[in-house]
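idk why but the lab printer keeps eating my pages so im just putting this in chat instead. protein + zinc ion:
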Amino acid sequence: MRAVVFERYGEPAEVREVADPRPPEHGVVVRVEATGLCRSDWHGWQGHDPDITLPHVPGHELAGVVEAVGPRVTRWRAGDRVTVPFVCACGTCPACAVGDQQVCERQTQPGFTHWGSFAQYVALDHADVNLVAVPREMSFATAASLGCRFATAFRAVVQQGRVAAGEWVAVHGCGGVGLSAVMIAAASGARVVAVDVSPGALELARRFGAAECVDATGVPDTAERVRELTGGGAHLSLDALGSPTTCAASVDGLRRRGRHVQVGLLPSAAGTTPVPMARAIALELELLGSHGMAAHAYPPMLELVRAGVLRPDLLVTSTIPLAAVPDALAAMGTAPAAGVTVAEPWS
Ligand SMILES: [Zn+2]
Ligand SMILES: [Zn+2]
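predcted complex ->
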């Protein structure tokens, strides 16, 4: 099969022929029809992820068709249209046993713990636990956008963040996950303040339902601006970028007893992130993490997509062939795209 491979961190990846994967005993091989490009892929390529061993094939936001099935899989057959959360769970550890597959103790992540989906085929373990059926009417490009950022944003806003209608929600960072969070919070009846440094990202945020937009390059203190716009601070605030600056601004922009949800990854290579804990105590803030979403939690989200309340399709702003992935991956370091780029390995 053809795949995007890199041999060394930070050096150009290339598209070349590699061996086809085989299905694990409890897993499947999926023919990849669409796979999203994500900032996590860039971090992995830069060597910021300790799970990766070289040479490596990145890619973790995928949708496609089951091609081959391991002997212990009971729920899936060749030809099924599927996607997966980026955290693939084992199904049997204590976390999985209580339904928290998103923090599985023996999780695998395609494109990190093993070769991923910037390839014509990808192997996925524990298919009965992790695969999600993609409805006929949903395109593969849209389905690919669900597994990482959209599902992550959904869990961050709805489950971890416990958004309520009428609340102010601040979203710091309007890349793929941030724009998804804007859309989901607005659809939940919240008033959204979107914060970013890119006018293009803020324009998309407004289109997806943000009531207020803050250009972080134009104000000395974004948290203060959020507190002004929201009459004292957001009820719920997300760092959807993942940086010490946006993390602190998110916490500082909350009102009393507000909830901060950390969604953007804070790479371990950058060290431990300082958090304004004095404010967390004085204002009784809640500080929460959010890490993907379990496959079994997808149906309510898919129902809102089916009903047209949520429109992940609008987040996909460009599709590229596999051959264009190495350059697109490199470009993420300097110019993070507004919206979502999806690669189609068979085009
Ligand atoms: Zn991702
Ligand atoms: Zn587990």
